[in-house]
Write a structure and sequence with these properties.
With 280 residues, the chain is an alpha+beta fold. The chain folds into three domains: 76 residues, Helicase, Ruva Protein, domain 3; 45 residues; 99 residues, Chitinase A, domain 3 (Roll), CATH 3.10.50.40. 52% of the residues lie in helices and 15% in strands. The protein is built from nine helices and eight strands. A hairpin with a 2-residue loop joins strand 1 and strand 2.
Length: 280
C-alpha cells in the first residue's frame, strides 16, 4: 500500500513512486525506494543536498531512511490499533487534505505566472558581462581524511604514513582509513571528494587548503568530531565559468527577479478587486 509521510512537502503527498525505482529497504512488505528517499533529502535541504560534503550526505541519508522505517512501523501499529478508524484521524485527514488542496492550487497558479515571463537573450549576455565576479568557479581540493577519537591515535597513524610518498602514501592512507577511521567515508578510503574553500568546518578547511597535492597533515587536526589526518589528492584552481555554462542559470535568475515584480503587482491588483473584511 502506498504510504505518504507527514514530514514531506506537498509534492511528496501528490507524487507516487516510480515502478522502476530501486528498493532501499522493505518494512513489513512495504517498500521504501531510492526515489522516495532522494525526494525527502532534496526537500529537506532545499535542493542543496548534492552540494553537501560526502560524509554529511551519507549521515543525512542514513537518518532519513531510519526515520522513514520508524514511520512505517508506527503506521502499521496505528492501523492495527484502530487509529485510522478514529474520529480524530478522519477529522485531521480532512483538514490536511483541505490545506493541501489550497497549497496545490497556489503552487500551480504561481507556476503559470512564472512560465509566462520571458527573458531576452541579450539581457542574459549583458548580465554576464556586467557581473564577471559572480561566475568564478572557486578553487577546489580533493581530500581524504581519517577520523579517530584521540590525538594519540591520529599521531600513530601519521607516524606510519610520514615516511611514504606518491602512490604508496595514497594506498596506505586509504587502507588506514578503511581500517581505523570512524567517519562515514571510511569505506571509501576516507574520500571526501572535491570541495571549495569554506565548505568544511574552519579548522579542517584551513589545514586542508594549506597542504600541497600528495601530502598529509603532519599534525592532527582537532574538530568537534574528533581528530583528523588529512590527505590531499588533487587541486583545481579557480577559473571563470564560460557563458554557455551559466547562461541558463542567469536566465532563471533574471526570470525570478521579474517574477517577484509581477507577483507584487498581481497581488496588489487582486487585493484591490477583492472584498476583504478583518474581524475586530
Amino acid at each position: 500500500m502506498k504510504r505518504y509521510y507527514a514530514a514531506l512537502s506537498l509534492s511528496l503527498y501528490l507524487i507516487g513512486n516510480s515502478a522502476s525505482a530501486a528498493v532501499v529497504v522493505s518494512v513489513n512488505d512495504d517498500e521504501i525506494t531510492t526515489e522516495e528517499v532522494n525526494k525527502v533529502l532534496m526537500e529537506g535541504t532545499q535542493g542543496h543536498f548534492d552540494s553537501l560534503p560526502p560524509d554529511k550526505q551519507n549521515e543525512l541519508r542514513h537518518r532519513i531512511i531510519e526515520g522513514m522505517i520508524a514511520q512505517e512501523l508506527v503506521y502499521d501499529d496505528a492501523q492495527k490499533t484502530g487509529v485510522l478508524d478514529s474520529k480524530e484521524y478522519k477529522q485531521e485527514l480532512e483538514a490536511l487534505l483541505s490545506r493541501l488542496k489550497m497549497q496545490l492550487v497556489a503552487k500551480l497558479w504561481e507556476q503559470e505566472q512564472f512560465e509566462a515571463i520571458k527573458v531576452d537573450t541579450k539581457e542574459v549576455k549583458n548580465y554576464y558581462d556586467a557581473n564577471p565576479n559572480e561566475f568564478i568557479d572557486k578553487e577546489k581540493i580533493h581530500a581524504r581524511h581519517i577520523l579517530v577519537k584521540s590525538k594519540a591515535e591520529a599521531e600513530s597513524i601519521i607516524a606510519v604514513l610520514k615516511p611514504l610518498s606518491g602512490e604508496k602514501l595514497k594506498s596506505e592512507f586509504m587502507a588506514q582509513a578503511r581500517s581505523k577511521s570512524i567517519g562515514p567515508s571510511a569505506a571509501r578510503g576516507g574520500d571526501l571528494g572535491y570541495f571549495p574553500r569554506g565548505q568544511m568546518i574552519p579548522a579542517f578547511n584551513d589545514a586542508a587548503f594549506a597542504l600541497r597535492v600528495g601530502s598529509i597533515s603532519y599534525v592532527p587536526v582537532q574538530s568537534q568530531f574528533g581528530y583528523h589526518v588529512i590527505y590531499i589528492e588533487d587541486r583545481k584552481a579557480a577559473k571563470k565559468m564560460g557563458y554557455d555554462m551559466v547562461k541558463n542559470i542567469i536566465e532563471q535568475h533574471l526570470k525570478m527577479d521579474k517574477f517577484k515584480v509581477v507577483m507584487e503587482k498581481k497581488m496588489a491588483a487582486l487585493h484591490e478587486k477583492a472584498k476583504i473584511t478583518y474581524s475586530k
